[in-house]
Amino acid sequence: MEIHELYRQINTCLQKYNVPREYFFNINERELHFNKYITDLLSGNFKFYNALCNIYFPQSHLDHYNHFTSFAKFESIISSGSIFAFCVRRRFHENEFLTFYSNYGFDGYKDRIGENYPSLAEDICDNIYYISFTKSILSDEDNRYMWKNFGDEGNGVRLFFKINILDNRIAELRQMNYAQRLELLEELIQIANAAYLKLLFARISRIGFFNLPGDYSVENEHRLLINSGNFERGELDSFKYFRIPINTINPNGVEIVLDKIHVRSEALRKQVINLLALDSRFSNVVVDIEYSM
User: What's the domain of life for this entry (predicted)?
Assistant: First the structure.
């Protein structure tokens, strides 16, 4: 199959799914390369990745994001002035990504075994970190679920954050896709296979980080992914993490500001207020009691 025809088929496929034209491929710029693969790895523009994210994992632009947690973990957040970001290997061991990679034939990492090649977990899952948030406007049913499963059955706290992505090369915040077929990806793979090629694109591994095989939509997750960079890292339960400063100037590609907290009782509200009073960074944080559950 001629290269011009492959470009035409790929762009027609993108158009079919209403992908913005900025993600179409320009043959004059040689944005795609063909050997054993159809790939955009050498172009550095992430067009395949951005096209798929545009449809299935849109960037989040909510006014607030919630994070439900126990009071003990909340104390750690306030005392350190930071929030944990864990390496995604933590989720990889829960088989969160494996189904996606197998379903779409991106499981070549299984062959990367031996002295010369690091495993997928070492190469990728130890160098990308995440924090899970949920949206701040929840149905009564979803709200009860979040309090029960993440808010220590009402004895924890519900944190309200404003999140601003400062550098898309370092951090991205996207809405999770739950068990929805990625039909655009399927058709792109079919185009490659018809030409006896395989599809390989930049940031291909990240797609799996935003896609869940089961129906966990009740969690309404918006996932923040951050490159590890040179941040100082620790280890907890055998998984690496680093802390992202909150309510302060942040060099980590993302700004996270805590400005409101919900609790379930007056006694807990007083404890939270007393804890916040110890750090001037949290002097303007509003603490309310949430009665419905």
Answer: Bacteria
